[in-house]
Amino acid sequence: MAAMTLRAEGTARAEDAWHRYVTPARWPAWSPQIRAVRVAGERIAPGMRGEVVSLFGVRAAFTVESVDDERRRWVWRVRLGPVRLRLRHAVLSRPGGSATTLRIEGPALALAAYALPARWALGRLVRG
Q1: What is the pLDDT of residue 55?
Q2: Alpha-carbon torsion angle 14, 123, 20, 102, nearest 10
Q3: Superkingdom of this entry's organism (predicted)?
Q4: How far apart are CA 15 and CA 12, in angstroms?
Q5: How far is CA 124 from CA 5, 17, 112, 113, 119, in A?
Q6: How many Å apart are CA 49 and CA 61, to the nearest integer?
Q7: Which residues of the chain are modeled with pLDDT < 50?
Q8: For a FRET experiment, which of 22, 37, 82, 128 has its CA 20 to 30 Å from that of 31?
Q9: Radius of gyration of the chain (CA)
């Protein structure tokens, strides 16, 4: 297994960026690689299961492991066929906006393929 950490800063308030994260229906608005999210519920919660549909129709199953609203952190597992990833997200307040970090753990080839769209999405997440 490999790991990488991505970061982005922007002018969005941390509360706004966090709300974008915890509301799956909003994911396609800031994450261009996501076309749809299929999930029962309006807000992420530990144990929540669902499916993300990519721009190209590829479907990935996910399970939310943990959500910490006070610290604005959450962790989920994503499965696409035999590929398994664990993604650890955080949103931080910064003067004039917010920052976000994403630590991805999984096969090195999958991390390399996901890095570019993830960087793009993170930038949009914290954009004001």
Answers
A1: 85
A2: -80
A3: Bacteria
A4: 8
A5: 17, 9, 20, 19, 9
A6: 7
A7: none
A8: 82
A9: 14
The letter for the amino acid at 11 is T
Dihedral, 104, 30, 20, 12 alpha carbons, nearest 10? 100
- Residue corresponding to tokens 């709300």: 19
105 neighbors 94 (Cβ within 8 angstroms): no
User: CA 99 from chain center: how many Å?
Assistant: 13
Assigned fold of 2-125? Alpha-D-Glucose-1,6-Bisphosphate; Chain A, domain 4 (3.30.530)
Q: How far is CA 43 from CA 21, 37, 85, in A?
A: 9, 12, 21
